[in-house]
């Protein structure tokens, strides 16, 4: 054997061991908590997360996945599983169901989740449809700002907007701070027309809300709607039947009253477009953050999807309309509701 191959096989630490001793097997780097002391306390009080039991809880969830869903193609590392435990306040059964729903929702809506990467969504990102404000709110929540008026339906379908939102949520939830604090949504409906609103029918609404409530590990702490026209009554009529009471109670409609908005989101974190003092609304910075994460999303969303029939048969997926006829009937009812708002 050559000297080079010997040097590759033998390190100083290994060479120093006796013949009967073997070095421990290499292990992947373990989980290192990045939470501040204040956030550790908050996680303990609000999420029932006990630092001394954290890894035991993660291992329990990992064991449940391996036993109950052995064919589920998912990451089982500590940091990833913690997202689901935190989202369900360390209830093992609910965390497991959320994890399985997370993967099943992705596989059941290929129009949204296939080839999901920032470079495939440059048109949406450049339109200014969404961004994340640079400052968090007083509770530490990141603020996701959505502006439907920036979308031109003739340029691309509404599912592209949904893809951009999901991409943003995936990036945000990588942060342990966000896992504990949750997010706030600021939706500006200025200029949303009847024709635009009609694209958001019952099928889309049910899918999106089902994912946000039951298929994604994020805590939505509030949804603030501003500049909503009368048409929004029709939009909300579509959404509300699918909302759990807890989430429905977190919707706040401010109209054009920015003072009302400022009682929840202070002016010093808002751009001047919303009566704030944090400068003009910046979309370029968040776009750059997403585009810099291209390789991560390619690894996660652009690989061949394994067979999942054995999984989907067992999963409690958010339900949608059961037939095209029902969808058509629902859409007619929705359009009637939208027209009545004028």
TrEMBL record:
PANTHER family: ALPHA-TOCOPHEROL TRANSFER PROTEIN-LIKE (PTHR10174:SF130), ALPHA-TOCOPHEROL TRANSFER PROTEIN-RELATED (PTHR10174). This is Alpha tocopherol transfer protein like. CDD domains: SEC14. The gene is TTPAL. One of its GO terms (molecular function) is phosphatidylinositol bisphosphate binding. Residues 8-19 have a biased composition (Polar residues). Transmembrane segments: none annotated. InterPro entries: CRAL-TRIO_dom, CRAL-TRIO_dom_sf, CRAL/TRIO_N_dom, CRAL/TRIO_N_dom_sf. Residues 1-30 are annotated as: Disordered. Signal peptide: none annotated. Residues 117-282 form the CRAL-TRIO domain. Pfam families: CRAL_TRIO, CRAL_TRIO_N. GO terms for cellular component: membrane.
């Amino acid at each position: 054997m050559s000297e080079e191959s010997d040097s590759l096989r033998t390190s100083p630490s290994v060479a120093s061991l006796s013949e009967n001793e073997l070095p421990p097997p290499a292990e992947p780097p373990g989980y290192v908590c990045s939470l501040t002391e204040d956030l550790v306390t908050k996680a303990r009080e609000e999420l029932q997360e006990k630092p001394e039991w954290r890894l035991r809880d993660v291992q329990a969830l990992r064991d449940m996945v391996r036993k109950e869903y052995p064919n589920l193609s998912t990451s089982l590392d500590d940091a990833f599983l913690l997202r689901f435990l935190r989202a369900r306040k360390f209830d093992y059964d609910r965390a497991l169901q959320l994890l399985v729903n997370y993967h099943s929702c992705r596989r059941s809506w290929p129009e949204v989740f296939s080839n999901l990467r920032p470079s495939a969504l440059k048109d949406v990102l450049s339109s200014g449809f969404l961004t994340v404000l640079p400052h968090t709110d007083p509770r530490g929540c990141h603020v996701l700002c959505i502006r439907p008026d920036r979308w031109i339906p003739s340029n691309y379908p509404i599912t592209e907007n949904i893809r951009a939102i999901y991409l943003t949520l995936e990036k945000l939830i990588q942060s342990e701070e966000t896992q504990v604090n949750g997010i706030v949504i600021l939706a500006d409906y200025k200029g949303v027309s009847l024709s635009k609103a009609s694209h958001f029918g019952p099928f889309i609404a049910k899918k999106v809300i089902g994912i946000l409530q039951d298929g994604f590990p994020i805590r939505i702490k509030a949804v603030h709607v501003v500049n909503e026209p009368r048409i929004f009554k029709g939009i909300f009529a579509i959404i509300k039947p699918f909302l759990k009471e807890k989430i429905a109670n977190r919707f706040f409609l401010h109209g054009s009253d920015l003072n009302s908005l400022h009682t929840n989101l202070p002016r010093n974190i808002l751009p001047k477009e919303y009566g704030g003092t944090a400068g003009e609304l910046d979309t370029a910075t968040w776009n750059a953050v997403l585009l810099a994460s291209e390789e991560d999303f390619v690894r996660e969303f652009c690989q061949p999807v394994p067979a999942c029939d054995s999984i989907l048969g067992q999963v409690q997926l958010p339900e949608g309309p059961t037939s095209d006829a029902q969808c058509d009937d629902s859409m007619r009812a929705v359009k009637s509701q939208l027209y009545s708002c004028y």
